[in-house]
Specification:
- The complex is a heterodimer of chains A (677) and B (318).
- Chain A has 677 residues and is mostly beta strands.
- In chain A, 12% of the residues lie in helices and 35% in strands.
- Chain A is built from seven helices and 40 strands.
- In chain A, strand 7 and strand 8 form a beta hairpin.
- In chain B, helix 11 runs antiparallel to helix 12 and helix 12 runs antiparallel to helix 13.
- The N terminus and C terminus of chain B are likely disordered.
- Classes of the chains: A mainly beta (677), B mainly alpha (318).
């Protein structure tokens, strides 16, 4: 899509194009799908392989489509290979410099050759009205004209809202979980007798690089049954950002979507498709680009946001973008600059304008906060910012309460919905969160008049969280002293990084225990300054220490080991540890400069693989293992990775370390990432 | 010394003209740097990977290793656009202006099209701004704005150069032209401010009145109208609008202004300036202490408009 879109194709240009290329009905390649709905208008988008004589027909019933859109009301865009008049914009093509360097195994991120994208702008419609439609090539119907192809215009602006919104994030992995989440949403909607009216995607809809092909296979094709009758309002994610640039509005992401830039759907003109706003009934929505635009409080996006919020007059205010201001899922909002800047720069603006709900993704987890205000500090703390520490569930602690209308700083709820289809994880516990789940799923928002209900539906269709905000009368919010805090249960975490900085020298580190060998052989050692590490000393028996809280089969496991003394220098890692008679091990042998992986089953060791490596005494040596469905990879000291076959199905066991008898080894850190399916 | 914000803007800008770099977007910069290092150690060093790592260093606020990596990339591939633009931006962040200009000129010479040249023009403009060579900077902004998709910030920067040169009418015209290319409300506001600075007060008032009719929060527009009054020596009108703006701002920031959007406090400080309370304004600017509206002057305290305007950076008066 182009930013400044007087680029409607002239009839002459279109005719010229058709005369040169169109000889028969071209196959429909993408869509049709809906974009940029308003009370009076809708955009229907579709692609064909090859040129067509495009036409959209619409009407009040599937078999009654008396109205049509053609000619200048259809914006045409074509792939770079298509010879077209100068005013016809082109779809994304990979820069030549990049194409020359691309791995031949990777998909060409460019738009497929001979692609024609049509964007039909339907206007003069009645608010809150359902229309059926079909797209044509001349007189040949390509799609529609049935009960599945329809659009419903938005209700009048400022009318009382009654809507259901599907919120999805980080879905576009092409996984079976992605499809399960989609099916679960549809089952939930069907069971409750209320289909979704609107669709918000908080980014990462086309892994890994946001290429045109990935959009097609991981977004348009899986969700086509919804996209043909529901507008998806998107926010750019980091994966789309690989090939699309918010600053220029160029790339497959911007090709895929048609969003307002000049206030077409309400709100202040942003002049860019990277961030924008729109109104649906009495709800004002704001989309921000947290990925590649200036996130500073004086930047153009922040200036636009302030201007937009000044003029927003609604009962509800919902903002969405990709990088979460509060999260301890697969990303840490206290450590990553995009998340920190969105929290420190944009949350104050939004809360000063009365935002009710923020929706984000990026972190592959579901996290939902308490009602809070003013949580801008780094690191995030709960003290002094929680206005209601209940669960927000009408059947539990009760709904969150706010005043009618948009009142400043009465609290908002933050949702991280990055659990839509890729690998989930959790590295910690955000103190402002009331509900946390590493299960895949999505969020359903029901907004009816003065009530907003959020439901997290997991991939099996079960409700994992439910909260409600009610906005009535006048509420005087007060900050909760000593608010409820989510339990920091280490067994629930899937990501751990042990650097022993918090552990007491001379003692065993927290959560680790000796599984076999000298019970006192494991102790934290203080180095100069604050640095600490773990020393493991085996006497007459091998010493195996394991991290007890987690058992895992698929993982990424990384550690640094060092041999401090004049022994025979043997030590390593264990995995799949069930008991002292059954485990796998990776052991460095200093005497032979080898790395050996073996399985111990019923006490008997079986060598799986042996590799030559260079082991230097008193030097930290890095070991990294990745065990996944796609293979078992090992790297040593950042040398090239090799793979090994475990030989037998790896058991669901503990991770740890091993020091053979009469040896001492030191471990600088352990980094564990459990693969949460 | 340049503000870090500009370096980030440059970094984003320069990426526009470059190839799609490999992005390890799922980890924080430290992890990405580590992964890139690992990948280069394992599979060999390339200009592309070095440049990707350099950008991560830059994003993490570490220009020195970024410069090293950019230079290493350029040693492998001397005309690599991504590395050239990234290096120029990093050098600019370090305050090495002559070197930054040299690298930017080198990139400019290699860029094949107006769109590819534009970020280099923007870099050069920032370099010239940093040495207060406003006319040279303005020319480079004008060059950058020839591109297909100029940034909103570029329009604003060109206008700022014109203000620095005292060419207020040209500034109005430049922003009017910008609005024809981009409908952003940010440019509209900048244009209204420019109208005031250029003493085109009737036009400014028309725009302000229209916005006052349609907005929920009116304080920013009231402050602009107060500045129109100030230009007209209408002290009563100036105070009336400034006071109304301050009342609304107080309602928005409530009893705890320190935790609010600090731009509200900055607007509050401007209102106090316009009310003839520069010390209170400074106090509010410094830490956001609420001044009770009840204690505000009710009389039409004389205030020299020009001195007030000169003290308010929001106006862009130089």
């Amino acid at each position: 899509m182009t930013l400044f879109r007087p680029a409607f194709v002239s009839s002459f240009a279109l005719l010229t194009l058709l005369m040169t290329t169109c000889t028969h009905a071209a196959p429909l390649y993408r869509g049709p799908y809906l974009q940029q709905g308003t009370p009076q208008s809708m955009v229907v988008v579709w692609r064909t392989e090859g040129a067509t004589a495009p036409q959209l027909r619409y009407g009040s019933a599937p078999d009654q489509l008396p109205h049509s859109v053609a000619g200048d009301a259809i914006t045409l865009r074509v792939s770079e290979d298509v010879a077209a008049a100068d005013e016809i914009p082109h779809l994304y093509k990979e820069p030549a410099e990049s194409a020359a360097k691309r791995n031949p195994k990777d998909h060409d991120p460019s738009t497929a050759p001979n692609t024609y994208q049509y964007e039909a702008h339907v206007s003069g419609l009645q608010p809150d009205t359902t229309y059926y439609y079909a797209v044509y090539d001349g007189d040949t119907r390509l799609a529609g004209g049935d009960r599945d192809h329809f659009f419903k215009t938005h209700p009048p602006v400022k009318s009382n809202p009654d809507m259901r919104i599907w919120v999805l994030g980080d879905s576009g992995k092409g996984s079976k979980e992605q499809i399960m989440v989609f099916d679960a949403m549809r089952s939930f909607a069907a069971a409750s007798g209320r289909p979704i009216d609107h669709f918000i995607h908080v980014g990462d809809m086309a892994y890994d690089d946001g290429t045109d092909w990935e959009f097609q296979k991981r977004f348009f094709e899986p969700y086509q049954s919804t996209l043909r009758n529901t507008v998806c309002w998107p926010a750019i994610g980091n994966h789309e950002g690989v090939t699309s640039r918010g600053i220029s509005g160029y790339g497959p992401y911007f090709d895929a979507y048609v969003v307002p830039t000049a206030g077409e759907a309400g709100g202040a003109p942003s002049g860019t498709e990277a961030y924008f706003s729109f109104d649906i009934a009495n709800v004002h929505f704001i989309c921000l680009d947290s990925h590649d635009l200036d996130r500073k409080p004086d930047g153009a996006m922040a200036q636009w946001l302030r201007a937009d919020l000044e003029q927003a007059q609604a009962q509800w205010l919902i903002a969405f973008w990709h990088h979460p201001p509060y999260s301890k899922g697969t990303h840490d909002s206290d450590a990553e600059h995009r998340e920190i800047e969105m929290r420190e720069s944009f949350m104050p603006i939004l809360e000063s304008a009365g935002v009710d709900l923020t929706l984000t993704g990026h972190s592959h987890i579901y996290e939902r906060s308490m009602l809070m205000d003013g949580a801008y500090a780094t690191p995030t703390v709960a003290e002094g910012v929680i206005l209601d520490d209940g669960d927000g569930n009408p059947s539990g602690d009760g709904a969150y309460r706010k005043s009618h209308g948009l009142q400043p700083n009465e609290g908002s709820v933050a949702i991280v919905a990055g659990h839509g289809g890729t690998t989930n994880g959790r590295m910690g516990t955000s103190p402002v969160m009331r509900s946390i789940s590493v299960e895949h799923g999505s969020v359903i928002l029901d907004i009816a008049d003065d009530s907003l209900t959020g439901t997290m539906v997991d991939k099996y269709g079960a409700t994992q969280d439910l909260f409600r905000i009610v906005k009535q009368g006048t509420v005087s919010p007060e900050r909760v002293e000593n608010p409820w805090q989510p339990a920091h249960d280490i067994t629930l975490l899937s990501r751990h990084h042990f650097n022993f900085a918090e552990d007491t020298p001379g003692e065993a580190p927290a959560y680790w225990e000796v599984a076999t060998g000298n019970p006192n052989g494991m102790a934290v050692i203080a180095n100069e300054g604050k640095s600490r590490h773990l020393r493991a000393t085996a006497q007459s028996q091998p010493l195996i220490g394991v991290f007890r809280p987690n058992r895992t089969q698929k993982f990424q496991y990384e550690s640094y080991v060092r041999f401090p003394g004049p022994q025979d220098e043997r030590a390593g890692l264990v995995f799949g540890f069930v008991d002292p008679e059954n485990y796998w091990q990776l052991v460095l042998h200093g005497a032979t400069n080898t790395l050996r992986i073996s399985q111990v089953a019923k006490g008997a060791e079986r060598l799986i693989v042996e590799k030559e490596v260079t082991i230097v005494r008193d030097k930290w040596l890095k070991i990294k293992m990745v065990l996944s469905n796609s293979g078992n990879d090992v790297s040593f000291d950042d040398t090239p990775t090799f793979q090994f076959d475990a030989g037998a199905e790896l058991s669901d066991g503990h991770l740890g370390f091993i020091v053979p008898a009469h040896n001492t080894a030191e471990y600088l850190s352990f980094k564990i990432r459990q693969q949460v399916p | 010394m340049l503000h870090r914000r500009w370096s980030r803007i440059f970094l984003r800008g320069v990426i526009v003209i470059t190839v799609a770099l490999p992005v390890f977007a799922h980890d924080n910069p430290g992890d990405v740097i580590h992964a890139l290092t690992h990948r280069m150690e394992a599979g060999g060093v390339t200009a592309r990977l070095l440049t990707a790592r350099a950008f991560e260093h830059s994003y993490a606020g570490n220009p020195t290793p970024a410069v090293d990596d950019f230079n290493a990339a350029l040693a492998l591939q001397p005309n690599y656009g991504a590395a050239l633009s990234g290096l120029a931006a990093a050098l600019l962040t370090q305050g090495k202006l002559a070197e930054a200009e040299h690298v930017a000129q080198r990139g400019l010479a290699n860029a094949p099209s107006v769109d590819r040249k534009a970020p280099y023009y923007a870099l050069l403009a920032r370099i010239y701004e940093n040495t207060q060579r406003w006319e040279a900077a303005r020319r480079r902004w004008t060059d950058a704005l020839e591109s297909t998709r100029p940034e909103v910030d570029w329009f604003l920067a060109e206008a700022e150069c014109l203000a620095q040169l005292g060419r207020y009418d040209e500034r109005v015209n430049a922003l009017a032209a910008a609005r024809n290319r981009n409908p952003s409300v940010v440019l509209h506001r900048a244009w209204v401010r420019a109208l005031i600075d250029a003493h085109q007060l009737d036009a400014a008032r028309t725009e302000i009145e229209a916005r006052l009719q349609s907005t929920r929060w009116k304080s920013s527009w009231l402050l602009l109208r107060a500045q129109v009054h100030a230009r007209e020596q209408d002290v009563a009108g100036q105070h009336r609008d400034a006071r109304a703006a301050l009342e609304e701002l107080q309602r928005r920031w409530g009893p705890d202004p320190d935790t609010r959007d600090h731009h509200l406090l900055r607007d509050g400080a401007l209102a106090l300036e316009l009310l003839g309370r520069p010390e209170a304004a400074q106090h509010l600017r410094n830490r956001g202490v609420l001044v009770d509206n009840a204690r505000l002057p009710t009389s039409t305290t004389p205030a020299r408009a020009d001195s007030l305007l000169a003290a308010t950076p929001e106006l862009g008066v130089d």
